[in-house]
Design a protein that fits this description.
The protein has helices at 86-95, 144-155, 169-175, 205-209, 219-225, 277-285, 300-304, 334-342, 346-353, 383-392, 418-430, 443-452, 471-478, 494-505, 509-526, and strands at residues 33-37, 42-46, 66-71, 100-102, 109-111, 114-119, 125-130, 183-190, 193-198, 239-245, 249-254, 268-273, 291-292, 309-313, 318-324, 358-360, 403-406, 436-439, 458-464, 529-535, 538-542, 545-546, 562-563. It is an alpha+beta fold. It has a 7-stranded mixed β-sheet with strand order 10-11-12-3-13-21-14, sandwiched between helices. A 6-stranded antiparallel β-sheet has the order 1-2-6-7-9-8, with helices on one face.
Length: 564
């Protein structure tokens, strides 16, 4: 689930979403980008990768150098390549670096492990120059061969380093499934030069490469640890993994050899799992933690009245939704899906559980993202229409069987309390003759079950955009290529697929935007989801915590954080 100036990449560089922060927190030590473009090739450079950031503030023996962060749930795995959940990726973001990264507070691309890059005129070849002298946490060298190893591992279904039960869902979602890959070849030209050859142009390619899921791991550590790498990750990032107490805490220590001089500013980060929102806020008020995620809107007034704490707002860039399992009848029937859309009172849910920090969702992507179709009309709350559609579908008295509704067991930025929201929806649906049983298995099981699609009829999930491109919402979540990874509805529409693939290849943003608007019309008519809300996620911290810049993607570096 992420500052300097934006590096423009050909005509379609404006695809990146520029999210501006209000006066929330200031960023310490950020570098700038240089731009060098021509009609033949485009080169990217970034001074941030080669220029030392600002030094840490002067510290004394009494200055706090350990951050304790409270979050709603545990990670599923610490290997970013095999996960799709934000709780896993936020830890991986501290341990791994990718070739590119997002400027803090935005989804704009800048250099990271790659100092610069060039793009061929036909958009099929990307050449990256790597930062020299970088070491993995295990002391082995980061180089072009390490990049090739990682991308080969993710792309090769027969890789010996794809262990039992693992799948590289993000790679498949971003670069196409086996048999229709976007990336044709990744080649080490020399130790600090790596070349990507594509089968077809991909407009959001650089945006995709910057994602945490494609953090570069130590080949030696994967070869040695094998299946256990997911529990003992090794990257090049600002923090080194130390300990994981499952369902309790993860401890990260400062990387003393981090290649970005002067970072991190903390010596240790402890990430605690505290599922209950009130308990997590109490821990912050009592000084047991320093920073908390997913503040309940109910606690906002208390927070704002406490001068020892500060409110932090993450830029809104998400969607919460209910997904229909197309493998289960009668949810393969579009009239049933539309009926249930009409029977959800979104505004009542927002008023009851979000305290003004959410807006009703109409489409699968947020209105702040370019390509959003504001001509699409939502299914209004209308129980009579819902009943009529059920009757047309052959169910005049409602559905005969009880529906299994999966509600998230952890708080998420887009859903502070999944169980309470599910109960409100349960009550609405009962009015049209649809009875439900709510189930909330623990988070890792929840993700496994919804991916398999054997136990749930309808499930609750959400998405925080990874890279500032509509492709990351529509193709990643609702295209047939994303089955069985992120498309947990098992929804397939060939017309939609054609539009989304054409949008990936198109380099003119206006044309891409039109394609995505067409896609949203198809999705609205087919109703594979009930889009629920877009939220402005709330975080809270001690007043003396500085250097934390919340990003729209929901994943931030902790390397710039310090205590005043």
């Amino acid at each position: 689930m992420r500052e300097g100036s934006f590096l423009e990449m050909k005509k379609w560089s404006s695809l990146a979403l520029a999210v501006t922060l209000g006066a929330v927190l200031t960023l310490s030590g950020c570098g700038g980008n240089n731009n060098n473009a021509s009609t033949e090739a485009t080169a990217g450079t970034n001074a941030a990768a080669t220029t030392a950031p600002e030094s840490s503030p002067e510290t004394s023996a009494n200055t706090q150098d350990t951050l304790i962060l409270g979050r709603g749930g545990d990670s599923a795995s610490l290997d970013p390549a095999i996960v799709t959940d934000g709780e896993s990726l936020k830890i991986a973001h501290q341990v791994f670096d990718s070739l590119l990264e997002y400027k803090p507070g935005t989804s704009e691309v800048q250099a990271s492990l790659a100092d610069s890059w060039e793009v061929s005129a036909d958009g099929l070849t990307y050449t990256f120059k790597l930062h020299p002298g970088v070491k993995f946490h295990d002391g082995t060298d980061f180089n072009a061969e390490a990049v090739v190893f990682n991308f080969t591992r993710w792309s090769d279904p027969a890789s010996e380093f794809k262990f039992e039960g693992d799948s590289f869902d993000y790679y498949d979602s971003m670069f196409g499934p086996d048999g229709s890959r976007v990336i044709k070849e990744v080649k080490a030209v020399d130790a600090t030069t790596v070349e990507f050859t594509l089968n077809q142009p991909q407009a959001p390619f650089l945006q995709n490469i910057a994602m945490t899921s494609f953090g570069i791991a130590s080949p030696a550590a994967i070869q040695e640890k094998k299946e256990n790498f997911k529990n003992e990750p090794v990257g090049t990032g600002p923090f080194v993994f130390t300990e994981w107490k499952h369902n309790d805490s993860i401890t990260l220590d400062k990387n003393p050899n981090y290649w970005k001089e002067g970072l991190p500013k903390l010596n240790k980060v402890i990430v605690r799992s505290i599922p209950d929102n009130s308990a997590r806020f109490n821990a912050l008020q009592n000084g047991e933690i320093d920073l908390m995620e997913d503040l309940s809107p109910d606690d906002l007034s208390t927070l704002e009245g406490n001068t020892e704490l500060q409110k932090i707002e993450r830029p809104p860039f998400n969607v919460a939704y209910l997904g229909f399992n197309f493998k289960k009848k009668p949810f393969d029937n579009v009239k049933v899906r539309q009926a249930l859309n009409y029977a959800v009172n979104k505004q009542a849910i927002i008023d009851a559980f979000f305290s003004g920090q959410a807006t009703a969702a109409v489409n699968p992507m947020p209105p702040s993202l370019w390509g959003y179709n504001d001509a699409v009309q939502d299914y209004e709350y209308d129980l009579d229409k819902a009943k009529a559609l059920l009757a047309e579908a052959g169910y005049p008295d409602g559905l005969p069987d009880t529906v299994t509704l999966y509600a998230m067991p952890v708080s998420r930025p887009y859903m502070p309390d999944g169980k309470k929201v599910a109960e409100a929806i349960q009550a609405d649906w009962e009015k049209i003759g649809v009875k439900t049983v709510i189930e909330s298995p623990e988070w890792a099981t929840y993700l496994d079950d919804t991916k398999a699609g054997e136990k749930d009829d309808i499930y609750m999930l959400g998405w925080t955009g990874d890279n500032g491109d509509p492709d990351n919402f529509l193709y990643t979540l609702l295209d047939k290529d994303a089955i069985p990874g992120n498309n947990r509805t098992f929804y397939v529409n060939e017309d939609l697929h054609t539009i989304l693939i054409n949008a990936q290849k198109e380099t003119d943003q206006t044309k891409r935007s039109d394609l995505y608007k067409q896609a949203q019309e198809i999705i609205k008519a087919d109703a594979p989801w009930i889009p629920l809300v877009h939220t402005t996620p709330l975080l809270a911290a001690k007043a003396n915590l500085k250097g934390f810049v919340p990003g729209p993607t929901g994943t931030e570096y902790y390397s710039e954080i310090y205590f005043e």
